[in-house]
Amino acid sequence: MLPSKDVTLLHFAHAAYRFDLLYPNRKHGAQFFQTPDRDSMRERIGDGHVFVGSGFWKNDLLADAANLKFIQVCAAGYNNFDLEALEKRGVILCNGTGVNMNAVSEHAMGLLLALTRHIHLGRDRQRLHDWRPMIADFNTREEELPEKIMLIYGMGTIGGRLARLAKAFGMRVIGMRRDTSADPGACDELRHPKDFHAALSESDVVVLTCPLTDETANLMDASAFQAMQSSAYFINVARGGCHDEAALIEAVKAGQIAGAGIDVTVEEPLDAASPLWDFDNVVITPHSAGETRRYEENVLDVLVENLDRLWSGDTDLKNRIV
């Protein structure tokens, strides 16, 4: 358990998210400090009772984190944390499920709209001061979304909200989840992952909103891209490891799919020599789907709630993993 509020020290560790500027506005009372890079984080890892961060964490830090009692991951993903080691040390870990629900679902929709409305190509022409004439070829014009089928793999908070957005655009939505008897939410139907390839062949848009696990690693491999319609789009706002990058490149190059919108890549940053940069029908964003002006506040909402529960002796925490 944590020490009392007046003794507990919070360690915010992030290069971009300014928790140190926003936490004081909560008038919550705990002491805190922020480290903006890995070196300074490592130097002070032994000081804090609470660690709030994500990508900076390395599991070898645990040996030097003498005071650590609680980790609040400021993202949904937590695969870089050794859960067994944390449990053995008695360190509680909660993730940030839901904090980027609005941001990532909207970003996925934005990538799709960019592809179907050719917004990215318009921006390229804008820089050249080039006014494109109207298009006579049906196959290369912009598209409309109503009645198209969106397949969402990953029906958590992000996938659920994306389904609602897609329905607002008049789309039909198929959600993939193990428990097909669950409430489908905004989805028109739920299907089991064993039927994934069959669903791929029916879908106009395939969106990954799932965590990276052993089951989802390289989920979109060569056979999956081959199962898609040549007129369909692939969107990945999950993790780069959920798609086979060589297979994606080949699928775009061979015209197996109509295009792709990817916020994540296998290696980040994406190698400057990657062919993905140069395809007109690929839109790339730099793993920025979750970033908004409200992001820190969303994380602090979860953190403050969990801290208050811990100080009261309650270990039933929001988004508890360990």
3D architecture notes:
With 322 residues, the protein is α/β, with parallel strands linked by helices. It folds into two domains: 9-99 and 292-311, NAD(P)-binding Rossmann-like Domain (Rossmann fold, 3-Layer(aba) Sandwich), CATH 3.40.50; 101-284, Rossmann fold. The chain is 30% helix and 15% strand. The chain has helices at residues 19-22, 38-44, 83-89, 101-117, 119-127, 157-168, 196-202, 222-227, 245-253, 295-311; strands spanning 9-13, 31-35, 50-53, 70-73, 92-94, 149-153, 172-176, 189-191, 205-208, 233-236, 259-262, 282-284. The strands form two sheets. It has a seven-stranded parallel β-sheet, with helices on both faces. Strand 4, helix 3 and strand 5 form a beta-alpha-beta unit. Helix 4 (101-117) crosses helix 6 (157-168). The longest helix is centred in the middle third of the chain and has 17 residues, at 101-117. It is elongated, with a radius of gyration of 22 Å. The mean pLDDT is 97.
